[in-house]
Design goal:
This protein is an alpha/beta fold. It folds into two domains: 1-55, no CATH class; 119-213, no CATH class. The protein is built from seven helices and seven strands; from the N terminus they run ββααααβαβαββαβ.
Length: 213
């Protein structure tokens, strides 16, 4: 009589050649097949989880350090404006300015409203130093009336007998040319920096490369 037998050879060594079919019949359960694709997927999941965990830890550290830094830096609200008035000016380096500059330019540190109230700032226009960007900012962003050479070149006009404000690309200029000595003399004849009846005829800032003139 044949015996029915189920053999699990997943953990045992079996010589299938010696199995006699007359002795028993049965079902042989073989070990599971090795699936490389599933192994790679499992490995990828482990790497992904580890990567996400590492990013979270690193982000938390960065946020913590950033908050500590911002808390340690004083803001403008924390700074008392009254304390700034007591700050000492920088020590003198013993450098003297040329006499032409000493006589014609004010010291902005001096607190004398009677002398500096109507002073006009002068921007020393040095070639290839971003003068156009400065003029765009002063005229476009701050809305200041400027005096340079743009009021003549941009408007296509020659010297005139009276001051007037002209618009060049949306910016306000006075019709003078301060890039030459002749232009400066002409602007002086028109009383460029004097107080006028119309505030628009008094420049808020003057641009010139000829600082000594």
């Amino acid at each position: 009589k044949k015996k029915e037998l189920m053999i699990d050879v997943s953990d045992s060594q079996c010589d299938y050649d010696k199995c006699d079919s007359n002795t028993f019949t049965g079902m042989i359960i073989s070990p599971p097949c090795y699936n490389e694709t599933e192994f790679l997927r499992e490995k990828f999941r482990h790497v992904l989880v580890f990567g996400i965990f590492s990013v979270c830890i690193l982000g938390s550290v960065v946020i913590f350090l950033s908050s500590q830094y911002h808390n340690s830096v004083p803001t403008s609200k924390d700074t008392d404006s009254a304390d700034l008035k007591h700050l000492s000016p920088p020590e003198s380096l013993g450098v003297s300015l040329p006499l032409e500059i000493e006589q014609h330019f004010s010291d902005w540190i001096e607190e004398d409203d009677n002398e500096t109230r109507n002073d006009v700032p002068v921007f020393w226009s040095i070639p290839l130093t971003g003068n156009n960007a400065i003029e765009e900012y002063l005229g476009g962003c701050l809305g200041l009336t400027q005096a340079s050479e743009i009021g003549i070149i941009g408007n296509g006009e020659d010297d005139e007998d009276s001051l007037k404000m002209v618009k060049v690309h949306g910016l306000s200029y006075l019709n003078v040319d301060l890039r030459t000595k002749h232009g400066i003399e002409h602007a002086k004849e028109l009383h460029l920096v004097d107080k006028h009846s119309s505030a628009s005829l008094t420049p808020d800032v003057v641009h010139t490369p000829l600082l000594y003139e």
